Amino acid sequence: MNLVPDPLHPAVVHFPIVLLLLGAPAAAVAVFWRKHHVPVLAAALLVFGALGTWGAVESGESDGGLVENTSPQLNELVDAHELWAKRTLGISILAAFAAGGSVLAARWPRIARSVAIVAALASVAAAYGIYETGHRGGALVYRHGTGVELATIAKSAALEAPKQRTISRDDD
Is 49 part of any domain? Predict the structure, then answer.
């Protein structure tokens, strides 16, 4: 029993999507409502979202080799998906640091609010990056069948392997 999904990328990408999309409104609320741990919630969502985005980019790098060099159109789409993923990673890191800085600067309300504004704007930009990345990733899967074919081939190969062993035992 394999505990790590193969390919890993489709299993990993959904965590940062959720975390960053929840982090954006939390960061916006944290600009105006500095009580009840709202800034801490926003920072936590954005930090874990940035970490998840890093994991998604890394898993995409390792799984991306499975679909590269298949056609020029597909390679172009994979490159665009990768570019937007890296942009989203950079922006989400900025949002996470700004949200964390806003929490740490709580002692100085003007500074904390200014940094919270940066976090909110960066988190909205990260949410847009998620849209662009996901749009291209969705096109890869739903228009071109990337990953779907690989999973189907891997599953059918796994199902065929025990049958071949059974046949070879009968021949002995």
Answer: yes
Cα-to-chain-centroid distance, residue 137: 11
Domain extent for 111: 9-171
Decide if 138 contacts 80 (C-beta within 8 A): no
| Number of domains into which the chain is organized | 1
Separation between Cα atoms, residue 21 and residue 24, nearest integer Å: 6
Helix runs in the chain, H state only: 9-12, 14-32, 38-64, 72-104, 109-138, 148-171
**C-beta atoms surrounding 153 within 10 Å:** 10
Q: Are 1 and 38 in contact, with CB atoms under 8 Å apart?
A: no
CB-based contacts of 33, cutoff 8 Å, min separation 6? none
Q: Over the stretch 63-105, which tens digit does the pLDDT of each residue have?
A: 766 666 678 888 898 899 999 999 999 999 999 999 999 999 9
Q: Is residue 2 part of a domain?
A: no
Q: The pTM is what? A: 0.79
Tokens read off for 110 = 């003007």
